[in-house]
Amino acid sequence: MTESPRIEGLLRRIRREIRRRRAEYYGLRGAFWGAVAGVAVMLAKHGLGTKALWIAGGLIALGLLAGAVYGAARRIRRGDIARVADRAFGLDDRVATTLEWGARPDRTPLVDALVRDTIARVENLQLKRVVKRVVPREGQLLALPVLACLVLAITPPIPLPSGRLPDFLSSTEEDREERTSSSMLEETTRQLAKDPLKRPAFEERDFAQRAGGTGATTTGDLSAIFKDTSLANTRPDFNSFMKKGDERLRMLEQTDRMPDLQSDYTNSQYKMVYRKSKALTGGLRPDQISPQKLRELLEEMERLGRKGGGNWSGDAMEGMEALEGGQSDRALESMQKALDKMRAMDEAQRSGKGLRGGRESERGGRGKDRARGDGMGPEDQDFGEGEGLMPGKGRSNNPKGEATQRLRASPFDVGVEGESRQGRKDGYDTNLTGRGGSMASRLQYLGVIGQYRKAMEDAITREQVPRDFHDQIRNYFQSLDER
Amino acid sequence: MSQDSRVQAFVTAFEALRTEVEKIIVGHREVITHVLTGMFAGGHVLLEGVPGLGKTLLIKTLSEGLDLSFARIQFTPDLMPADIIGTNIIVEDADGRKHFQFQQGPIFAHILLADEINRATPKTQSALLEGMQESAVTVGGSTRMLPAPFFVLATQNPIEMEGTYPLPEAQLDRFLFKLRVRYPQIEELNAIIDRTTQPRTATVSRVVSGPDVLSFRELIREVPIASHVRDFASAIVMATHPQWEQAPDVARRFVRYGASPRGAQALVLGAKVRALAEGRYNVSIEDIKTMAVPALRHRVILNFEGEAEGVDTDTLVSRVVADTEAGVAHSREPFLR
Fold it and tell me: Degrees (nearest 5) of the Cα angle A248, A252, A257?
């Protein structure tokens, strides 16, 4: 420790300067952040009123004060002050070395000379301010939040989009006067929101039915809106929704099995005529059927055949001739033939219609030709004995002709609907809604399914079925077993 | 004698010796100053420069200004270690009996000029190692002390590399400073012409004795150094190591091996001499910065990229010093910089 009051005075002076600069530095930073908080307060002026300006100003002052106190209170080491003095006055580290070595027990005689030299030089110093003012980045930007506070102070309050800040306003007369129009508007809005017959405000829609459908009608409950439906209290089943979504996605991967959704099957010609024929013949013997209505139906079928290019016009004509001759049985038989042809054409149009790239489209096209003509497509007509069609290669030497269409050739083949008893069984009692109509049938599918399963395994082994689809296919057969 | 007068005597001696050398040597003030610094610091100095720049003349002039013995060895490829150290020879006394007697080599001198040191074989070069480090040589199993002060001044030519043997790193590290003698400016060249092509009138006086040099060496070691100045010197040396976590990018990119601890010693000792030569009793940051290049330039080994890019070690060390200083300043808050 040096005893020189001059050196100590120099250090004290520099320490004061550093504290002052630090106080300025951190004060500016504190003021900036206080001003930022002040801007937030001013944004909430709607709820705070004139007090917002005072609060914002107080925050700025508080930040400034807190920063200044923090900066001034920070510790400064003597060695740091000495280095500042050395650099500021060009003392070549004399002061720092003197302070450090002056207190060391192993000081050499040269240190005494150093101390004397340092004291002499410090006494001859022309003191000046040595610590530069440093403006922090926050200080350079301080004007922005302060300006924002002032602008917000003179502009009208910004209404908050939702909720309200706590009402700091007292019930004094002054405050009441300031609230006039805006508070009245608020109250009106609140009253409207509480009206159960009107649609609740957005912030009041809490979708309480999701938390548990108790059935009790509360404010904001959707059951109030869907009062007459049972859906209002039903909790949405997202799992089933996602499961069905997954199934639909899987269906999308099988493009060749997708039906033509663009056409309205419920209103197809076949359906329409079929319903009329059922209505005409339902439960009646041929001699009990009205000849007039039967004639009208046959005429309708004949007209549709001519108009749509169908091949059942001849059958309908035969039916009408038989009816003229009083042969109701033959007339019904002709009508049934015409219906079969209509159905065949309808099915051919529905299977893979409008889809390209799938194998079904090619088959469907041929089936359509077959249904339209005499059952033979253009390619089929030229086949000789023992020849068949080889896909993509024209004629085939296969005497059996085309391979049998798979189950998926028609939606009816896989779209079997109905109820079945529980447990494993060798047959499936069907209750068909498709072409089977009211006819009860029994599909002995266990034997068939075994053959198909073997064919499936062979196909997976031989054909280039993508690996990702192996499990999907096997799962499908597994699901058939479970039924 | 008081400390002030001792310091003043050193300042006077240093300045007088430099003045005497400058009577003969034109320019090269920095080189002369660093040579004197190295000598008073107790180290050895390697001078590098193309032929004809006055390296040998500088050293000879210095030896004339010192009241010390001087020896010169011209290193050649066929020079043998015994030619430097000496050898035992058979002598016959007056009685006719023969015995071995050690014949001292030129190394037994206060000032040894090893001219074109890189022209001798590594075996011969290594003969200097023990003498430079221990101030002693071992011949025939007996160790013999060299006279004090012992000071080796070596020169080497950086361009005629054919038939030379570059000094190994171990030997380079034993030189306190490596100085580069640069080509003179045109004014200096004119002065050289005037001085050397006219009848020589300048004579060099012996201004410093051997005991004075030894006394000054002790005084120099008493110079105090503040901890932050010492830390700065250490940081510079560490910054030459690419493996150091705070090493600057230039060191990471171009340096294979950084300076050894001898580099830090050389840095601080040179800084102490510089401080005392300026009449100052303490080492400053500026002293460290000034001595960094001569003390570290031969201790930094460039990697392949550095060699391929033609990186100059002087520039590299300067960059390291600047980066280190900036890093130290940056670590302090703005009011304390």
Answer: 105
